[in-house]
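Hey,
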Amino acid sequence: MEKERYFELLAEKYPTQQAVCREIINLNAILNLPKGTEHFISDIHGEYEAFCHILNNCSGVIAEKAELVFKDTLSQDERRELCTLIYYPKEKLSLIKSENKNSEGWYRTTLNQLIALSRVLASKYTRSKVRKALPQEFSYIIDELIHIQEDEDNNQIVYHEKILDTIIQINSADDFVIALSSLIKRLAVDHLHIVGDIFDRGACADKILDMLMNYHSLDIEWGNHDILWMGACSGNKACIATVLYNNIKCGNTEILENSYGISLRNLFLFAKSVYGNDIQKSVMKAISVILFKLEGQIIMSHPEYEMEDRLLLHKIDLEKGTIQNDRGIYKLNDNFFPTLDIDNPYKLSHEEKEIMDEFYHAFTNSHRLNKHIKFLYDKGSMYLVHNDNLLYHGCIPMDDDGNFEGVEIGGNIYKGKKYLDYADRVARRAYSHKRTQDDLDFMWYLWCGKKSPLSGRNVRTFERAFIDDKSAWKEEVNPYYKHYHSEKTCCMILREFELYSDIAHIINGHTPVKTVEGESPIRANGKLIVIDGGFCNHYHKTTGIAGYTLIFNSHGLRIKSHHPFESIFKAVIENKDIDSDSNLVETERKRVRVKNTDIGRGIEKKIEELMELLEIYRREKY
């Protein structure tokens, strides 16, 4: 009966044989178009200007298309000027006007160049899809211009010219340039994947999220820094304290105070009164002690986390100025802990509790932060299986032998895919009204837990803060990072997520690839690709580059390594682009068509159903 009802509904949409035939023909045609271009980027870490430019230049794809179309007609400088106009049309138009270069001839030439580029980029999509991508205010006109065909008497060419003449004469050329630039950028990248870590280190994660909220098609695989902010916004106080610690340490207090309306005033006053007048040192000390107390409370409440070695406050010897951790006894660089109750070291003082209660209300009630976090939930997940690729930020926890490591929670053992599915469910529940304290605590565990799929290491924040001996800082990593160099291990992971195709890959972020030391982002004979190239300025020396973009189009996979970006200002004034080096990862023997994608498989299913409906119509006719 359900099937009968389904076909009744399908018949309402396609009421005649002709309507069914038309849709089958249309869908079969779509299946044979080239697949859309996907871009994969990870570990942006608040680096707004560089990321903004990468989005605008589509990881260098627009410059490549401009060279393809205009290599015989425009010089390199002219192509750079045109590309900058596409990246930043409003800013570049303002500059061109100030230099009195915006003549009718310039507008006519430029509009024709933008239309030519649009036509090339639109060629791999259906006309229907292109129409949906068109800026609404000029959709009909642009549709006409990019689909004009030459004819015997050049009627279409004359028609084209008259449209452009009219646009210029009625002073709409600027708006048209902006509209065409927007279309070019939208057609150059069909879908964007952000493989984790939008927040922290860089100062402007909020601006990046504002950009992404207006992006036409994307998904996000949560990183450990993203889940940290999600936990803070959900109300986990240890996550809140960690967010404060990270951003004060990096000098990024503006994102807290100016962007999200979270005042640090009382924390600073408390720090000054308790720890002294050196504000930076005092406030870091104050939030560190609060953080380690809150972490200790969670660890003691959850023995299943197996993180007792991170309980360090009760191991401080105040008289000797030393601490004992799992590696030995170390000298502390600071022995002044006035809020530490030796008999109950993990209890907040009255003032510390008041400060954290205030931060709890500030984080959970920040309108803009909640808007951004809701977006992360709406577009994000722990992992994604898409077009024969498995995307996740951190790791699939393993034991020393390379088997999936089991994590026991609530009497159940989770490992592999089931563990990530469980983590996804709890993370979503933690932001809902149905959350429990255990759900909130698990958000902190996902940030830094020993077997967290987002962390993958034993985080030693205390040692880095209070011990100068760097031998105490070394953070043991999950065996995953040893075994993921093996093709056999990667194939095991892919099978766990029901990916059996020879062309399936794992796309991983989280760990910066040390290109400067000869490391390659391609692991396990091409089965795994690590795309953390150090977007954030903090990592440029470590990686030797300034980020990766993995590009998957109908011809195959290639990875682009980006050089450091100077500024948007220089890009506009001097036409300075990000220089990028492109390396092939895998070339497809046959061009990848829509029928080879997830969307294509859905279309094929729909065609089967329409064929069945067509058969019903034909039986009823006879």
